[in-house]
Give the backbone structure.
Amino acid sequence: MKKIQISPSILAGDFSNLGSEIKRLEQGGADMIHVDVMDGHFVPNLTIGPPVIKSLRKYTNLPFDVHLMISPVHKYIKNFSDAGSDIITIHPEATEDVKDSIDLIKSLGKKVGLSLNPDTPIEIIENYFEEINLVLVMTVYPGFGGQKFISKILEKIKNLKKIKDEKKFKFDIEVDGGINFENNNMVINAGANILVSGTTIFKDNNGDIKKNIQLLRK
């Protein structure tokens, strides 16, 4: 079994001091840094763009795991690549041609992720499993941090893991949305090997990031 990796979402960090927050995450044992990019159009919120990612790049050598919740996404992929993204995850609904967007991300030397919203079936992305590095399964509706975990999505994670194992695909299964100490083991047992968490990592146990990351990984 692959090591369980933790990708803390800086959406839950102190936005006035994100550079220091990223350093704290690195010192606390994070495997990568999850960056939620929202456009107020594809999802009902606005966050950060390429200039902010570029300014944060100097604070760590950890991979930047960038989740683009923007539409149309294709024309912005190069900007986010140039800003310092290492993994670029897009939603199939946000591009006119999923294959073109996958090819563009790969041509820029970045890892490719496809994200499934709670209502998006696995079948929409099944033709791309050989070409991608990661499937990001959303266990909340994207747009806001701190939402409640949708437990019925566990079945989708199990089905995805079954397809992966049967066909011997290599992609990681990442899960994002309401991940905490009550459901982390359920998500891992369902087949996930990367957990995204924001509020739990930054706020629980009096903000003890190292402890929270260790507890999520178990």
Notes: The chain has a mean pLDDT of 96. The longest helix spans residues 154-167.
